[in-house]
Prior knowledge:
The complex is a heterodimer. Chain A is of the alpha/beta class. Chain A is built from five helices and five strands. In chain A, helix 2 runs parallel beside helix 3. The longest helix of chain A is centred in the last third of the chain and has 46 residues, at 113-158. Chain B is an alpha+beta fold. In chain B, strand 8 (269-277) and strand 9 form a beta hairpin. In chain B, helix 9 (310-390) packs antiparallel against helix 11. Chain B is rod-shaped, with a radius of gyration of 61 Å.
Amino acid sequence: MSSQRPPVIVIVDDEEMVLTSLRSFLTLETEYAVETYDSPTQAIEKIRENTVDLVISDYLMPGMNGIQFLLEIKKIRPYATRILLTGYADKENAIKAINEVGLYQYIEKPWENEDLKLVIQNGLERRFLMERLEEKIREVQHVQQNLQDIQAQIIKAFM
Amino acid sequence: MSEEHPPSTLAEFQAENARLRRAVEELSILNGISGAISSMMSVDSIVEMIVQESVKYLNVEQGAVMLLRNEEDTDPFRTVARKAYSGSDAVPFRFGQQLTGWMLKNQKPLLINDLGNDVRFRNVASPDFSIRSLLSVPLKAKGEMVGLLNVFNKRSEEGFTIDDQRLLSIIASQSAQIVENVRLYEELQRRSAELRESEAKYRALTQEAGEAILLADFSSRRILEVNEKVEPLTGLPRRVLRGRTLAEVIPVAEWNDDGTFERMSNSGHLSYANVKLGDNGGPTRFIDVSATIVSYGDNKIIQVICHDVTERQKLAEHLRDHAEELEREVEARTLDLRNSQAQLVQQEKMAALGRLVAGVAHEMNTPIGTITSNADTLSRALEKLDKIMRSDEIPEAVRGLRGLKQVQTVLEDIARINQLACDRIIGIVSSLRNFARLDEAELKTADLHEGLESTLTLVHHELKNRIEVVREYGDIPPISCHPNQINQVFMNMLVNASQAIKGEGTITIRTFRQGDIVNVQFSDTGTGIPPENVSRIFDPGFTTKGVGVGTGLGLSICFKIVQDHGGSIDVESEVGKGSTFTIRLPLGKDTKAGALR
């Protein structure tokens, strides 16, 4: 199912230049569907309505910081991979957040395009693996349910 | 006077007899006189006896002994030591003057039996003049006239005879020497009594005065006598002091110059304050010296009074020492204060700079991240464009469009250069962050080579094209330190070195290990530091760079930082050749560096 559509990536930063820069790079180099927002609240609204596979967020933003934002995303889309894009001085906070909120990765500004690409690739892979795992679990559960149903029918039939 | 042959006639015999009797009498008189003298009578009693015996033997009304005064006098020129014996009237004054005047002038016996008619004294004679006859002989001792022996008014018709004169002369000659001797003896006794008295007075004065007193001969300047106070003062016994020169004992420099004593002779007095004794091995004392010329007869004596002011001097010195000590302490404290104030200011400045740098670096992250990313994206885009342009789908006409290839080349060049520029900016920001290292207030184990490289990046603009940096990095382990503080020291070393180099030159950075010490050496080929400034370069506020160039705090801060790390910093410099600063830092963790923050 997932391989049929391009992965959806949401990028949130209050700086237009970062958004454009990242979008340009990813559009040029990948087949991802890239959506960018300069407001975290706006991004949350859109994500509620649409599917998303990976979210990249700046740390320092007006209204809501990146960690709060990503925590919110976790609630809405638990399987989406979350990445924090942060400045050097916020490193400590970022590491803390990774542990507390369960982030996949953080990327330091200024970033290397190649690194970013790899992190996104891995993040997406993880996300789809997770999804496949879920599917398998669901399948197994489904099979189990069927088996239980059959077992019940057999028991009923014998009794 | 008498013949030597024996008497032959009665008359002669009688005469001889009379002569013998007279001789016996003479002898008895002389015996009496001698006896009196041998019993050590006074001049007065001797003279009285002479007069008594003369009056009695010569059978006269009056007798007198007149002794010459030793000292000059306005009055009769001589004085009567003992006057008349029997009889009533004294010798009239005017006549006395005439007589003594004549005797002094002629110094020989004078015999007058008819004074009233004597032409020599006629002018002074008068009707009531009671002296009719006189006999006067000089009293001579060792040929010098010392007085007169006079007898007046012979109680016989014939008057004074030549025999009388002879006898009186004998008496005179016998008594004169005796009288003189006794008189001298008495004088001597009187003088010595006087001397004893004045000496006693002087001694009382000098011994009890509490002052040390030295008496010295004026011409030789050699010490004649000292009082007992001089011994403890000089540390020399009296017998040693006697005979030494004043200048030997009391080191007044001017006393080696004879002119000083000539001046003293004129003014009579000289004084000196705080003369130091004891350089010749005695106790160290300070004295006020007062020297006075005292005339003693024809002799001149220098009297030197020494007032011991050692205690005063000690007190003054003590006060001075105390004041100096206080001053030093104040100076040291002021220096300390200035030092710590300077350091506080510098630390605050560095902290502020660090915050600023960190803030700037943070703010730059976003734009730099963007540009870097864009430059990369642009390169990739151009690559793709190139691929597309080469594909078969692009018509030959489009591929061959004039200028298209040129545009592509320009864009590729710009993308490449932009990337290089971004790399450099990223490097600088990273160095700034490393240098400030605000996040590292605690002791860290740091690689000094990294610190040196970060710092070199920051001072690049000061050095480029002008100064060659030679790295002679040795094998040194990471050390426990405050990296931001140590980087600050490196920064200072490099900036100072570059400022010392006018025009082109070389800075050599050497690192090497000696036991538990890591050495970082900065050598420049600059102007060098003059020797007189070398000891001051680590003082706060010392600068030779002029207003606006240096604060004069840099090296003092460096010194303090290195010191707080348990290390040391020193300099070798030669004017015209350059300077080498060596920083020694211990490897260990037990540094005091925490005190800085």
